[in-house]
């Protein structure tokens, strides 16, 4: 294994817990080489060098941002992806039940199984969890720039409330596998995983291995209506709201009807402005998960194949 550690992940938690992780890796008898990230984008460089050097498993020790960088360094290489989640959000870990408790996460690396998961691609960038256009991208930018002193869900809620003061709904043209509709929206979430924003259950019906995105569209809501509906996302109950729709698609294109800057994000990272096109890459990445998750995914895959 090649283990890539982001020491500043989770407000420096990566640095604080590394000695525990290292001790547990040794205790489990795992053979590994370690490198620490030093700047943005470094994890991707380290991961690419690791697979070029013949490592068959690359492990991200960090949050969703570190995981994304490592993923983009190994995508298409055939190497497996491991994760020890020590970030602020750890949303992909939630979707595949990788524990945040250190010893349990290392145990998954030692005796878990790998599953093939889908990836999303936008331009040259891969994502494994969630991307989006509109309000959520503005929130992600605010979190990165103005909520660094907060963690996880608290940072997201703070950023949501701040963005509600300035963000306005957008008329978009949404293409789902070529079928086009025009909508007045707050945001479009393109989900492979189920969670984002540090634990919000945004796409409760999403599966990481079904070959589809779950596309969650929040149509125009007044600020009071949004605030009333917002808490339900933590239990995944928001999909019952009449102005929140979910679609399934393999290819998604979002563009503004009128000429305006509509931000986009992938895994919480700003990726420019719409128009943006997202496509699913089925079964593109092997990820090490708990045995129970691998068994469950296998049964679900068999049921989908039969039905």
Tell me what you see in this structure.
With 307 residues, the protein is of the alpha+beta class. It folds into 2 domains: 2-111, 3-Layer(aba) Sandwich (Rossmann fold), CATH 3.40.50; 130-282, Tumour Suppressor Smad4, CATH 2.60.200.40. It is built from 9 helices and 15 strands. The strands form 2 sheets. Strands 5, 6, 7, 8, 9, 10, 11, 12, 13, 14 and 15 form an 11-stranded antiparallel beta sheet that branches. Strands 2-1-3-4 form a 4-stranded parallel beta sheet, with helices on both faces. Helix 1 (9-27) packs across helix 5, helix 2 (42-52) packs parallel to helix 3 and helix 6 (135-146) crosses helix 7. It is globular. The N and C termini lie far apart (38 Å). The model has no long low-confidence stretch (mean pLDDT 92).
């Amino acid at each position: 294994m090649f283990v890539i550690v982001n020491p500043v992940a989770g407000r420096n938690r990566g640095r604080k817990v590394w000695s525990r992780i290292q001790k547990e890796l040794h205790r489990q008898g795992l053979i590994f080489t370690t490198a620490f990230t030093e700047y943005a984008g470094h994890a991707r460089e380290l991961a690419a060098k690791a697979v070029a050097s013949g490592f068959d498993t690359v492990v991200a020790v960090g949050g969703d941002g570190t995981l994304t960088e490592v993923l983009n360094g190994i995508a298409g290489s055939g190497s497996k992806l491991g994760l020890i989640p020590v970030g602020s959000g750890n949303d992909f870990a939630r979707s595949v039940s990788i524990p945040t408790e250190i010893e349990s996460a290392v145990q998954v690396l030692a005796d878990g199984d790998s599953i093939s998961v889908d990836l999303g691609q936008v331009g040259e960038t891969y994502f494994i969890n969630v991307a989006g256009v509109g309000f959520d991208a503005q929130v992600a930018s605010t979190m990165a720039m103005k909520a660094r002193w907060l963690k996880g869900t608290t940072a997201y809620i703070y950023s949501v409330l701040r963005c509600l003061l300035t963000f306005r709904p957008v008329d978009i043209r949404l293409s789902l596998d070529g079928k086009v509709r025009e909508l007045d929206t707050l945001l479009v979430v393109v989900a492979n995983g189920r969670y984002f924003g540090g634990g919000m259950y945004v796409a409760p019906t999403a599966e990481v291995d079904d070959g589809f995105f779950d596309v969650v569209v929040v149509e125009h809501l007044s600020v009071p209506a949004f605030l009333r509906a917002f808490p339900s996302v933590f239990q995944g109950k928001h999909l019952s709201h009449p102005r929140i729709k979910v679609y399934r698609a393999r290819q998604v294109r979002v563009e503004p009807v009128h000429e305006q800057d509509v931000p986009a994000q992938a895994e919480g990272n700003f990726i420019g402005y719409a128009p943006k096109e997202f496509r699913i890459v089925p079964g593109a990445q092997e990820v090490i998960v708990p045995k129970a998750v691998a068994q469950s995914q296998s049964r679900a895959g068999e049921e989908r194949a039969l039905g």
